[in-house]
Design brief:
By secondary structure, this protein is mainly α. The chain is about 70% helix and about 5% strand. The strands form two sheets. The protein has a two-stranded antiparallel ribbon with strand order 1-2. It has a two-stranded antiparallel ribbon with strand order 3-4. β3 and β4 form a beta hairpin. α1 packs antiparallel against α2, α4 runs antiparallel to α5 and α6 packs across α7. The longest helix has 29 residues. It is flat, with a radius of gyration of 23 Å.
């Protein structure tokens, strides 16, 4: 991210991500809404475009599936609205789930949008996880193939009526075909790497992008987390 001279490197973006996770995980429940609100404000300032991703339809559906059930099934029913009873304890739990969900997803979106997978793999390889960059590359390479395989298999099943009668058998065939194609693709990549004498022990991680602001982010993040924890 580059904006008016302010830029973060890989270390800085990881610091922001770790800070956001620490805030929603370490802050006590009575301050979680304040901590989450502060985190979202910081994330929106650093990553202006993430609010569109947070409001995506599939994210809102997942959030509803996680936060709505506690309102009706957690604790004793002691409140009502328009004749529908619900629990105040469940409402508090739903607010905490919502706040943590938004912060974690926002931090994850900001990290993945500004840091390449190869850079993350390089950091983990520096921590002793050799060959992780290659493994992540294989996984990313498989994703488009897996998507095409799913689409083609689904269309073939529909054309042949495999989803009309004994649809559960069609679903099993769909899953088996998709997984088999993914494993075959992964095997092809592994054999190609082996034929080129690839060795995880000899891999060299990519250099990290470090900005001057990275050394400001970490102390500031630590101070804020300690402040919220002590305030409780």
């Amino acid at each position: 991210m580059n904006r008016k001279g302010f830029s973060l490197g890989t270390v800085g973006h990881l610091g922001i991500f770790s800070w956001a996770l620490g805030m929603v995980m370490l802050t006590p429940g009575k301050l979680i809404l304040y901590a989450a609100g502060f985190c979202l404000l910081v994330l929106f300032l650093i990553y202006p475009g993430i609010w569109r991703r947070l409001l995506a339809g599939r994210r809102l559906i997942l959030l509803a599936l996680l936060s709505v059930p506690p309102v009706f099934f957690l604790g004793d029913v002691d409140l009502s609205f328009l004749g529908v009873g619900f629990s105040s304890t469940g409402v508090q739990a739903a607010l905490q789930i919502t706040s943590r969900f938004l912060v974690v997803i926002g931090a994850l979106e900001g990290l993945t949008a500004n840091v390449e997978i190869a850079a993350l793999a390089g950091i983990l390889e520096r921590l002793g996880l050799k060959g992780l960059g290659f493994s992540m590359g294989v996984a990313l390479n498989i994703m488009p193939c897996l998507k095409r395989s799913c689409t083609q298999t689904w269309r073939c099943l529909k054309m042949r009526g495999g989803l009309r009668r004994k649809w559960w058998r069609g679903i099993r065939l769909f899953a088996l075909t998709t997984i088999s194609n993914a494993l075959l693709r992964a095997e092809e990549i592994a054999l190609a790497a082996e034929s080129r004498a690839f060795s995880p022990e000899k891999t060299r991680p990519l250099p990290l992008l470090v900005s001057t602001w990275d050394w400001v982010v970490f102390p500031a993040a630590l101070v804020v987390i300690v402040f919220f924890v002590i305030l409780a």
